């Protein structure tokens, strides 16, 4: 956001360039949905002071900052890994997560 500005970062091209960094690793799409919903329940976007997440909207902040950070912290706890190792695990296991835990909208 600092390098490209809020509009470019929030646009499709900006989102695609950071897509791999926001994936929840081996938790997959289903894990992403569960983490997202839990965070939305705990921290509804409407409860944020708008200025507190600038230049992102509260919803963008949840999806692009809080969800990836929660996934990272879960991996750190699950695997007893340091932050740097957990980031590698998240990135290396993203394809596995998508294949094993797709969001099929069944529930």
UniProtKB/TrEMBL annotation:
Keywords: Cytoplasm, Nucleus. Belongs to the RTC4 family. Residues 1-103 form the Restriction of telomere capping protein 4 C-terminal domain. It is found in: Cytoplasm; Nucleus. Pfam families: RTC4 (PF14474). The keyword Cytoplasm applies. This is Restriction of telomere capping protein 4. It comes from Phlebiopsis gigantea (strain 11061_1 CR5-6). One of its GO terms (cellular component) is nucleus. The keyword Nucleus applies. May be involved in a process influencing telomere capping. Its main location: cytoplasm.
